[in-house]
Amino acid sequence: MNEFLIGPFAQVLTMNRLPLDGPLLDSQLEILTDAGVVIRDGVIREIGRYNDLSKRPLPRHEIATPTVLLPGFVDAHTHICFAGSRARDYALRLSGLTYQEIAAKGGGIQDTVRYTRAASSHELEESLVARTKRLLARGVTTCEVKSGYGLSIEEEIKILEVIDRVGKSQPITLVPTCLAAHVRPPEFDSNSEYLTYIIEGLLPQVIQRNLSRRVDIFVEKGAFFPEESLIYLKAAAKMGFDICIHADQFSRGGAQLAAEVGALSADHLEQSLEEDFEALKKSGTFPIVLPGASMGLGMPYAPARQILNLGLPLVIASDWNPGSAPMGYLLAEAALMGMAEKLTIAETFAAITVRASRALRLTDRGTLTVGQRADMVGFPTGNYQEILYYQGSLQPSLVYANGQPIYNDI
Fold it and tell me: What is the pLDDT of residues 216-255, one digit of tens each?
């Protein structure tokens, strides 16, 4: 049995006993002071005052400087299994071209598809491992990862297999999502033909090989229309997939579709209106907002304050991808959106911990409580407010994943 005590921490934000929906006040945060955590076999077994816990004859990981401890961050929407760069797209956006105009010139998603198809599994695996290490150093211990840069049966399977191998070999938890319906590849003449190809040829293999239990689709002009997406999503749901939708990034329609099919999440929502959010609330669909994409494209943020005020469980994710959201820094993006949208500290932290974990159907993480996975991130400060105050420049001083020290600079 591997059991030890870690502490003392100046503050522990447990993120426990918080409502999962709607607005939060900082006064609702449960904050333990001078606290310690007992971990056994990767699970939190006790949490409380360090002086009391230290009376037990346990091995100790002592914290010598003031540190604030939180649950490990959960990034609920990324595209980090890819090859190549889209720096050219970035330069074109700076010159005034839109996302759609760049795609029409051969850039955009199809450009990354060309690079990713040309990359070997080994090359993709090496680059994904490097990105997961960067995530862990920034406190992200659970990360959703989409396919979608293969756009063929063989290439999508290649990407999902890489995600699977890296998830099994690295300390971070990877949650795979099949986004074969990202855009239509040039080999197909119609969207309906391509979606049928995915339904009949790819999704059964994904289920059989246990490569993913989640399906996503980009519902947007230039990608897939709501009507054809509905047929695809119904077929995927019948096979047992959880449904996620890239919704309302540039135009409306995706959020209403997400509500209609009872999707687990609707992601983006920059163009959504109150009626769309009310529909999502009624369907129990998680709204996931992606400030990294707004920053990368020079667009307004999704209306996070409105989403909370309407009583929904706001989730913030990075959307780390090579095109519209290359930063990939969840904490910084959440802090900047929180300032712009006037989110409380409690709301921002909940959106990247407990609420984000629930959006991925994970109930064993997201809080620091007895029985939860010991996924934890610590920051070198005695005041939790400084973590968001410094907008990402205050780096984690320790990270534990499943009870194992991944990063410790104390």
Answer: 999 999 999 999 999 999 999 999 999 999 999 999 999 9
Cβ neighbour number for residue 155 with a 10 Å cutoff: 18
Structure-block tokens of residue 159: 């990407």
d(CA 229, CA 225): 6
Q: Are 174 and 211 in contact (CB under 8 A)?
A: no
Q: Locate tokens 């047992």: which residue?
A: 240
CA distance 78 to 85: 16
Are 42 and 404 in contact, with CB atoms under 8 Å apart?
yes
Yes or no: say if 395 and 138 are a contact pair by the CB < 8 Å rule. Answer: yes
Instruction: Compute the average pLDDT of residues 276-293.
Output: 98
CA distance 94 to 103: 15
Extract the tokens encoding 287.
Answer: 């709204």
Domains, the chain, ordered by start: 3-71+366-408 (2.30.40.10), 74-359 (3.20.20.140)
75 to each of 22, 26, 80, how far by Cα in Å? 20, 22, 11
Indicate left, alpha or beta for 39 from its phi (over 0: left) and psi (-120 to 50: alpha). Answer: beta
DSSP string, 128-144: HHHHHHHHHHTTEEEEE
- CA 204 – CA 387 distance, rounded (Å): 44
The pLDDT of 143-164, averaged and rounded, is 98
**Cα Rg, the chain, nearest whole Å:** 21
Q: Containing H/E element for 9?
A: strand 3-13
pTM for this model (two decimals): 0.97
What is the arrangement of strands in the sheet containing 286-289, beginning at the earlier edge strand? 73-75, 140-146, 173-181, 214-218, 242-247, 265-268, 286-289, 315-316
pLDDT of residue 103: 84
CA–chain centroid gap for 97, Å, is 28
Identify whether the C-beta of residue 399 lies closer than 8 Å to the C-beta of residue 72: yes
pLDDT tens readout for residues 297-343 = 999 999 999 999 999 999 999 999 999 999 999 999 999 999 999 99
Which tops the pLDDT comparison, 63 or 99? 63
Tell me which long-range contacts 194-199 makes (C-beta under 8 A, separation of at least 24): 195/224, 195/228, 195/231, 195/232, 197/153, 198/232, 199/232, 199/235, 199/236
Of 125, 160, 137, the closest CA to residue 73 belongs to: 137
